[in-house]
Design a protein that fits this description.
This protein is of the alpha/beta class. The protein has one domain (15-189): Rossmann fold (3-Layer(aba) Sandwich), CATH 3.40.50. The chain has helices at residues 23-26, 28-39, 56-68, 80-91, 135-147, 170-174, 184-189; strands at 13-18, 46-51, 72-78, 99-103, 123-128, 159-163. The protein has a 6-stranded parallel β-sheet, sandwiched between helices. α4 links the parallel β3 and β4 (99-103). The radius of gyration is 17 Å and the shape is globular.
Length: 206
């Protein structure tokens, strides 16, 4: 019988990417997920899947199926995809995901906010705070005016990464370093390893 908590690298790794409201047009997250899947083309036990934010039932199906066979689960949502990720988490309880990454998430509704992420072993919150806002940040601002923010929902995140980037810069935000030098992409790559800060480069001889 499968454990309620996915065990890292026992039967492989499944990365689930969820795009925001306009991602079917902009393909910000879709292109990133496609590139990840190309990287794993010849690896039978590592997959990356992309979903639009409204495909929560499909995401749940893949997550439950792969948890049942003991795969490591990584859930990554951008903008409205972050809202969907939190709702998927609640729907798959008592199954846990090994890593939840919310990249500049925006809730869909103040009246029906997403739940707290109680079944994620590790949570990374990437928050875009650009020095020079552009139209994508205006879109985010409108979304937050209607839906609020997810800062309280993600207050228990293990890492908060502040990125001086615009809302649509999904790929760049994935690689933005946190205070410990680790990016969200680093946390994804190191899912099967103990998380340690990146060591500062040294010129001293070993």
């Amino acid at each position: 019988m499968a454990s309620a908590t996915a065990t890292p690298n026992r039967r492989g790794v499944t990365e689930l990417y969820i795009g925001g409201a306009g991602d079917t047009r902009t393909r910000l997250v879709a292109a990133y997920a496609d590139e990840r899947q190309r990287k794993f083309a010849h690896q039978a036990h590592h997959d990356a899947h992309y979903f639009p934010h409204y495909a929560s039932r499909r995401i749940q199906h893949i997550a439950l199926r792969d948890a049942e066979i003991g795969r490591t689960l990584i859930l990554i949502g951008h903008s409205w995809g972050g809202d969907t990720a939190l709702r998927v988490l609640k729907a798959i309880r008592p199954i846990s995901v090994d890593l939840l990454v919310c990249v500049d998430p925006v809730p869909k509704s103040r009246l029906n906010p997403p739940p707290m992420p109680r079944n994620a072993d590790r949570i990374i919150h990437v928050d875009a705070r650009p020095s020079y806002p552009n139209r994508s940040d205006q879109v985010k601002g409108m979304g937050q005016w209607f839906g609020g923010t997810l800062h309280r929902r993600l207050s228990a995140a293990h890492a908060l990464i502040i990125a001086d980037l615009n809302h649509f810069a999904f790929a760049q935000m994935m690689f933005a370093p946190g205070e410990d030098g680790l990016s969200a992409a680093d946390h994804v790559e190191r899912i099967d390893q103990p998380i340690r800060p990146k060591a500062a480069s040294s010129s001293s001889a070993g």
